[in-house]
Amino acid sequence: MAQSAFTLERSAPQETALSRLWSWLTTVDHKRIGKLYFFTSLFYLLVGGLLALLIRTQLAVPNNDFLSPDTYNQVFTMHGAVMIFLVVMPLNAAFFNYFVPLLIGARDVAFPRLNAFSYWVFLFGSLLLAASIVLRTAPNAGWFAYANLTNNTFSPGHNLDYYSMGLQVLGISSIASSLNFVVTIINMRAPGMTMMRVPIFAWMTLITSGLLLLALPSFSVGLIELAFDRLFGAVFFEPSAGGDPVLWQHLFWIFGHPEVYILILPAFGYISEILPTFTRKPLFGYPFMVYSGIAIAILGFGVWAHHMFTVGLGTVPNAVFGTTTMLIAIPTGVKIFNWLGTLWGGSIRISTPLLFAVGFLGMFTIGGISGVMHASVPIDYWQTDTYFVVAHFHYVLFGGALFAIFGAIYYWFPKMFGRMLNDKLGQVQFWIMLVGFNLTFFPMHLLGIDGMPRRIYTYTEEMGWATWNLVETIGAYMLGVGVLLMAYNMFTSLRSGQPAPADPWDGRTLEWSIPSPPPVYNFAEVPVVSSRDELWERKLKKQAVPAAVKGGSGEEAEGIHLPPPSIVPMIAAFGLALAGGSMVFKEWILVGIGLAILLFSIIAWSLEPNE
Amino acid sequence: MSHANAAAAHADAHRTSTGLSHNKLLMWTFLASDCMFFGSLIMTYMVYRGRSVTGPYPDEIFNIPFTSVSAAVLLLSSLTMVLALAALQRGKVKVFRVWILATALLGTLFLGGQYYEFTEFSQHGLGLGTNLFGSSFFVLTGIHGTHVGLGIIWLLTLFALSFRGLVRQDNAEKVEIAGLYWHFVDIVWIVIFTFVYLLPY
Amino acid sequence: MSHPGGETSVEHAHPGAITYVKVAAILAILTITEVSVYYIPALMTIITPVLIVLSIAKFLLVVAFYMHLKFDSRLFTGIFAWGMFVAIAIVLAMIALYAY
After folding, report:
1. Which chain B residue has its CA at the smallest distance from C80's CA?
2. Which fold has domain B22-198?
3. What ipTM goes with this model?
4. What residue ranges define each of the domains in chain A, with the CATH number in brackets?
């Protein structure tokens, strides 16, 4: 969607608090939207972390009554949902937004207003989901919400309506932003940047977006059917009418397993950007990194039933899905070895991003190996629904995805905010979190093998699980300290941190060729790319670094066309969320108003000047 | 097509790496995603085929001649849609208006047929919660109907915009993209018609 | 609207109205065949494959001509085919799982 021209001079009137707020509400700048995603999801990281601490506090000692069983159900459900949908996915979205255009040498994403729409839908959808926590009617059937626990008989409250509506709205946000990034990466690369010169992080964004586009619809349909069952008396998952609760599991995991890769592929991207920079070596086996990412995405659609081995699908389906699951270990292993190959013989600079990247390698590999164990059907029969599984997915999602994200925060924060984070404090944070992480999650393997089931709100003394549970709780609080340290580090850095130079890490990609933080138009001159490690190549050849590094004042920027700000995306998103939220309470008039707002703002959107 | 002039004016701002337009790429990517959406709905219908424990059952209430006609109506609307686009690409805005309006009318006729079919079924005692057939049939065809409805709004918007000079030969791509959506909704019905209505039980 | 900077080879001329009408005629014949097959008892044994083939034919005609994939960039075909492929594969797998 082409946007009308408006010059930079006009974009900076005298700032008042109100005009500044308005400029954020109407922003279509991918960097601002990235920051909005960033801070929103960091807030939810605190929420999700708090929920985790509630769980660990409850389980610290046997026969604890810190939380009631019903509250416990809500807390563990929302811990999962918040961490997946409101923390890891949007934190990745924050980096997609901020860095993909910079990495590929573009001035913005392909559809700036659609991008703003995605953020506002995410925000309102997340508020809808989070409102249930405040109102103490949070979803309580696990983040997977297995039917027929979720029907009106067994879940009479509004809890699961928040689930179906909140996640439906969040899904629309993800679809919109995925469409945007597919088009951006395919269509807006700088001249000379062939697909095989695209930085791996942008490649992983493309693959993640493709996965989301094909995986989410299955979940959307599941949620629609769930909502029809609960609100309009349909019988999709009603066993008395012949409905099959297992169908929900299929619809959920056809989405849910690709979702795992949606969470982890961006992490692979961060690692692939951080390791070469801090080892001063080009990424080892770039094409293999790309193709193994694609292979993971393709195979990821053929493994969903490994979450359902004990459902009783039969021997043949279980064997097939077990085999496909093991196959995924191959491309994943390729990636691990390529990262090791990147480290090998490099001149390694110890710093926080590198530490988190290496921590990722170790922890993710442990989680990957326990994943291959689950792929074996007989072993999975033994492990399913025990804490062993909890250990596995925290090793890949916390030790994997979140460690990589923390690394990315330390790596890119200087570019985003123009201030360095305190590296010493970052290293302290890393070691606290590494120890805390393993204290929390490694004993879960042992408890799982000993038979401790997931999702129970307490256990008795005689089970002999008390010691390890206490250790886990201590570890969890260490993780909490680590997160608070990072928050403190960011806070002090934003207030009084060292100003960041344009290129603090001797970077290899285009974002380091422009000032920190980048000017609103990103690149004064659209860069012409001739290499995978473009910036290194230029520094090596002592080529003139692009104009933006030298001046970057905005003088050169005259005549660059930027999209005009617009409030319409936010209003459209509000209409959508209003309709979704009103469905929870069956307030049909409000649903109608919400949909009308959505429809009219889309029409207004198409009429906004764009020629 | 005469994009050349308009394109040259914004050559720098609108350069794309592949030479393809953003909007068209967006629409095709969306349609790929929508395949999976309708795929999941059709999948639900297919795995629940013949699993209803009470009637009415599909073969008791389907009115094949009637549905065949409404399927043909939707198919015909694809022809008028593509004729509208062809007219606009040749600069014949008035002809475009006739065909786009015809497309919207045929779409409305299809929706009318669906309304008639739904009321007919409910008089035979088939409701949303009557059995698995009712749930999966109404949700699948209802969501398809919603897609048709949104398409009609889109087409009528284009029709109205053409009077304000906002739909022209040089931005006929707007119509082409709406057309892609419209044809997709049509091919979904081709699949539904075969797999839901015609395949024997 | 975003158009290619120069006229590149990806934009081919779309076919004319006559082609579209011809395609519509074929689509009509295929639809009539579908409904007739449904009513001929003798064909009951092979009705399923026949109907599926007819429906695929109609699908391909609309996609190739009305949606211009035959004349447009291969990238569009690739993206759409990938979505169709995953959708069809998963639907078939599910039907197999439920038939098993």
Report:
1. B32
2. Four Helix Bundle (Hemerythrin (Met), subunit A) (1.20.120)
3. 0.92
4. 26-553 (1.20.210.10)
